[in-house]
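Supplementary Methods, section 5.1.

A reviewer requested that the exact input to the structure prediction be made available. We therefore reproduce it here, unchanged from the version used in the analyses.
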Amino acid sequence: MKQITKEEKASFITRPMRKQSIIRTMLLNMKVGDIYFIESQEWKWTSATPAFLCRRIEKDTDYKFECEKALQPKTGWIIERTV
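The structure derived from this sequence is encoded token-by-token as follows.
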């Protein structure tokens, strides 16, 4: 997982996602406005996407995340903390 800028995020083709790992820890430590890109090979769960973790964290805290699927130039997920 790495932090990306808004300009780098704009270069990705994305689609909205509607439906205690290191990624969960990083999500809990995000500040409002932070954006992370999780590459497909970094995500090992077969039954859920990173959006699942975002929704679980949103239920337990006052955080809000925007999750999108990145299709090009790399596949993975873009997660932005909005609140």
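The radius of gyration is 12 Å. These observations are discussed further in the main text.
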